[in-house]
Specification:
Number of domains: 3
CATH topology of the largest domain: D-Maltodextrin-Binding Protein, domain 2
Helix content: 25-40%
Shape: globular
Strand order of the largest sheet: 2-1-3-10-4
CATH class of the largest domain: Alpha Beta
Number of helices: 9
Distance between the termini: 46 Å
Largest sheet: 5 strands, mixed
Radius of gyration: 19 Å
Length: about 300
């Protein structure tokens, strides 16, 4: 038997059930069950977390259960998983990436370009806020909390003119038709790991590893590891507006990185490319280039 640890939200359960289904297809005799675990992040869905909260708002309790042998597998949205994970844990698989981009959902079907002047946009992400303000400084952007259904309800009630969510999450929940516009990387560079699932196990659990490895997608794994190395090299916390996005094809990797100020007045964006076998060196080099261009000062401001 394999026990999967998951948050209880609709999206988290979709992700856990996808892992369960793939394992059962590959190993018909294997029994797979899902254990729902409440995380700190779930308790702060409707209110702003206190300052200086530890990393891993949506992952720590599930990782703790994994270490205590209460579950065998932890399924995370990879973008929620901190880069400095416990050495007793292993990121055994990264699933094939779904659409990595953000999506604009507006009440009147507007694109970001034709939102009315001063339109009210909802997002809790400083990454999204900073990049959108760099393009539309007239917009009013404020926090938007809750699960996907709650956020859409707040939009429909008129609390916002538009909101921004991840395309992958909306698609997985059958809500793709709500999308007014897909925000490609030319508009808003995605979060590190966005669209992919990170599947963790105990580092010494070889039996579970043999099962989980079939879920790993090589190109996505390389791309997302490059993004995570880039993020770690910058040393920014979860509130810093950092974005990183890599694509791997035909043995090559192309990567973009961005650090911004929350008001969008300063956006430092660079890109690099090369052989995918050199993803680590390319990611670290991109981080150094962005830091040298002034991102170090932006990050220091957040880390005070």
């Amino acid at each position: 038997m394999i026990k999967i640890g998951s948050r209880g939200s609709k999206l988290a359960l979709w992700q856990a059930n996808w892992v369960k289904s793939e394992l059962e297809k590959a190993f018909p005799a294997l029994e797979v069950v899902i254990e729902i675990i409440k995380t700190t992040g779930d308790r702060y869905q409707e209110v702003t977390p206190p300052e200086n909260m530890p990393k891993g708002l949506f992952t720590k309790e599930i990782q703790d259960a994994l270490i205590r042998n209460e579950v065998d597998v932890a399924v995370h949205s990879l973008k929620d998983l901190a880069t400095d994970t416990n050495p007793d844990l292993l990121l055994a698989a990264i699933s094939e990436r779904a659409n990595p981009y953000d999506a604009l959902i507006s009440r009147k079907g507007n694109s970001w370009r034709d939102l009315p002047e001063g339109a009210h946009v909802g997002t809790t992400s400083t990454r999204r806020k900073s990049q959108l303000l760099s393009l539309r400084p007239d917009l009013k952007i404020s926090d938007l909390r809750g699960n996907v259904d709650t956020r859409l309800r707040k939009l429909d009630e008129g609390q916002y003119d538009a909101i921004i969510l991840a395309t992958a999450g909306l698609t997985r929940l059958g809500l793709k038709d709500r999308i007014s516009e897909e925000l490609t990387s030319e508009v808003i560079l995605p979060a590190v790991g966005q669209g992919a699932l990170g599947i963790e196990i105990r580092a010494n659990d070889e039996e579970t590893r043999k099962h989980i490895e079939i879920l790993d997608h090589k190109e996505t794994h390389i791309a997302c590891m490059a993004e995570r190395i880039f993020l770690a090299a910058l040393g920014g916390g979860c509130q810093v507006p950092i974005a990183g996005f890599a694509e791997v094809a035909n043995g090559q990797i192309k990567m973009q990185g961005c650090v911004a100020s929350v008001d969008g007045k300063s956006v430092i964006k660079r890109e690099t490319s090369g052989a995918s076998s050199e993803y680590k060196e390319l990611a670290e080099g991109l981080a150094k280039e962005i830091l040298a261009a002034g991102a170090d000062k932006l990050i220091q401001h957040f880390n005070k």
